[in-house]
């Protein structure tokens, strides 16, 4: 399936076909083992806060209790989730129903994609205004503070009556020889959908709202699936695989390999999220924070790059239907806890992060300020074809 990603990689900018159409990708065949980090990848010193070398004490939730009907065990799991989500917005789950062999197969197909020749990956590059496609270091969107990674993004839209949309994407984008790759990711996305239903039910229980409330809210939404490759970097002390940010999306379902590098900001320091091969990481995003009326915290996190080995992860971002009003249930609003956010739609936030704002840690606040100031460009302005930093 091609040679493995190893050694340092460098950003490569082909000559644009049209003015201002710069597509940047990682090219491992260029300038192997460079010791000086290109300036596009260098992050400001105030963001390069050293890790604490401590681990986050997030709960590990056994989702199997949701199928047993043991209300005492469910209540205990819900309490652990509630405490974690109020503090930092992240927990891990086991017995999630996603087969480990399927997860391994998906990682194998990741290698198939990222080991393709440069020209083949470029054929799948993201188009302006689209969430789907290949991107290297977000170089097609940003000119500085680039993350040291390459990604492929595709969508499983729950509102479409199709059992092959992910498979169809891979065949139409990469060719019929990628039917097996598409089939693996189709099955993976279907398993993620079922898994997400259980998590949404547990989150509803933890908030004291109707246990089907969030599941029903997201029934006609969609999953943005993203596979990530973080090649090794010799000068890893001055860059990130992903910079500090909160996800503007609703919920993030992450499986990471055993290399490590994910960190969460809690108790005023950066704490490692330890990889677990049988677990998924769940973190709260900005949109779900609004759906809880701010009770749950959108998780501030970042990804470090390893100096010697590649890191891989698979991320599913759950989002509601674009035109559906994002509003916390009435039971979470009272005289003591008034409504914290005005109604908005996911389409509004997505458009904002695509055209005006590089998503970092303040997306909702900046968005509402932007609305209140006649939509003048915010200080953290991004290119017109930019999208969330994740």
From TrEMBL:
Gene3D superfamilies: B-lactam Antibiotic, Isopenicillin N Synthase, Chain (2.60.120.330). One of its GO terms (molecular function) is metal ion binding. It holds the Pfam family 2OG-FeII_Oxy. InterPro entries: DIOX_N, IPNS-like_FE2OG_OXY, IPNS-like_sf, Iron_ascorbate_oxido_reductase, Oxoglu/Fe-dep_dioxygenase_dom. Residues 221-320 form the Fe2OG dioxygenase domain. Keywords: Iron, Metal-binding, Oxidoreductase. Its cofactor is L-ascorbate. The keyword Metal-binding applies. One of its GO terms (biological process) is gibberellin biosynthetic process. It catalyses: gibberellin A12 + 2 2-oxoglutarate + 3 O2 + H(+) = gibberellin A9 + 2 succinate + 3 CO2 + 2 H2O. Pathway: Plant hormone biosynthesis; gibberellin biosynthesis; Hormone biosynthesis. The keyword Phosphoprotein does not apply. PANTHER family: 2-OXOGLUTARATE (2OG) AND FE(II)-DEPENDENT OXYGENASE SUPERFAMILY PROTEIN-RELATED. Belongs to the iron/ascorbate-dependent oxidoreductase family. GA20OX subfamily. This is Fe2OG dioxygenase domain-containing protein.
């Amino acid at each position: 399936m091609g040679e493995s990603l190893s050694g340092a990689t460098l950003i490569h900018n082909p000559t644009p076909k049209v003015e201002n159409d710069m597509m940047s990708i990682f090219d491992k065949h260029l300038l192997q083992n460079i010791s000086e980090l290109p300036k596009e990848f260098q992050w400001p010193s105030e963001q390069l806060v050293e890790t604490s070398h401590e681990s986050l004490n997030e709960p590990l939730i056994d989702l199997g209790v949701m199928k047993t009907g043991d209300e005492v065990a469910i209540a205990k799991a819900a309490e652990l989730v509630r405490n974690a989500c109020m503090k930092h917005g992240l927990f891990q789950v086991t017995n999630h129903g996603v087969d480990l062999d399927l997860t391994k197969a998906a990682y194998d197909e990741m290698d198939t994609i990222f080991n393709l020749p440069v020209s083949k990956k470029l054929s799948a590059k993201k188009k302006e205004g689209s969430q789907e496609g290949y991107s290297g270091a977000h170089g097609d969107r940003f000119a500085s503070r680039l993350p040291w990674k390459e990604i492929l993004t595709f969508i499983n839209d729950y509102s479409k009556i199709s059992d092959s949309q992910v498979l169809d994407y891979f065949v139409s984008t990469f060719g019929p020889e990628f039917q097996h790759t598409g089939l693996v990711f189709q099955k993976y996305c279907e398993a993620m959908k079922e898994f997400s239903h259980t998590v949404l039910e547990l989150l509803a229980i933890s908030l004291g709202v109707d246990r089907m409330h969030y599941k029903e809210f997201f029934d006609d939404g969609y999953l943005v699936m993203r596979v990530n490759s973080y090649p090794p970097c010799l000068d890893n002390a001055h860059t990130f695989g992903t910079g500090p940010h909160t996800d503007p999306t609703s919920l993030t379902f992450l499986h990471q390999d055993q290399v490590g590098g994910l960190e969460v900001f809690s108790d005023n320091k950066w704490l490692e999220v330890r990889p677990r091969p049988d677990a998924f990481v769940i973190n709260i995003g900005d949109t779900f924070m609004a759906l809880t009326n701010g009770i749950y915290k959108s998780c501030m996190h970042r990804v470090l790059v390893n100096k010697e080995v590649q890191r891989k992860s698979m991320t599913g971002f759950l989002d509601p239907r674009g035109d559906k009003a994002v509003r916390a249930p009435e039971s979470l609003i009272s005289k003591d806890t008034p409504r914290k956010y005005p109604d908005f739609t996911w389409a509004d936030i997505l458009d904002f992060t695509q055209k005006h704002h590089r998503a970092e840690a303040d997306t909702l606040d900046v968005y509402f300020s932007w609305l209140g100031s006649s939509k003048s460009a915010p200080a953290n302005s991004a290119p017109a074809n930019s999208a969330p930093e994740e």
